[in-house]
Amino acid sequence: MPEPAQLGERTTAVPLLGPAGLAGLRRHVRELLDGERPEAAERALLVVDTLAGLACRHAQPPCTVRLRHRPGARLRADLRELRCRALPGHTALRLPLHVLDRLARSWCVDLHGHHGVLFAEVDLRR
Q: Origin, by domain of life (predicted)?
């Protein structure tokens, strides 16, 4: 039986085959968040786009962006089991991470060796 927090939650998965797939991902997120407050939807779109951009820049395609949306409450984006190229270190990651700091309720970028995990959650109520 699902937990109360999961009731009404919708999960979708969008394949990301590289930078050319970012436009399709953005369209999907906009459709998914149709009906949310415009400011909240834009905030969530920026967060998902930042994560997907990091994946395109540092991981080898393909990967999957898993989105969990609880209408009126939150959107969580997960990219797991990323196959990473050699990383230049966290200095190159600083620029987009300030976006996550300001817009996401919680987030994690864990890229090391040749694998990685990215996730962020956006509070759609604020």
A: Bacteria
CA distances to 6, 23, 38 from 124, rounded to whole Å, are: 15, 22, 10
Q: Are 105 and 43 in contact (CB under 8 A)?
A: no
Label residue 93 by pLDDT band (50, 70, 90): low
Q: Which of 116, 106, 102, 113 is nearest to 54 (CA)?
A: 116
Buried-exposed string 11-30: b where 16+ CB fall within 10 A, e elsewhere: eeebebeeeebbeebeebbe
Q: Which amino acid is at 107?
A: W
What domains sit in the chain, N to C, each tagged with a CATH number? Answer: 11-123 (3.30.565.10)
Instruction: For helices 38-58 and 94-103, give the axis angle rounded to 10 degrees.
Output: 150
- 52 residue type, one letter: A
Furthest-apart CA atoms within the chain: distance in Å? 44
Does residue 119 surpass a pLDDT of 90? yes
Closest CA to 11 of 51, 66, 48, 49: 66
List the beta bridge partners of residue 115: 83, 112
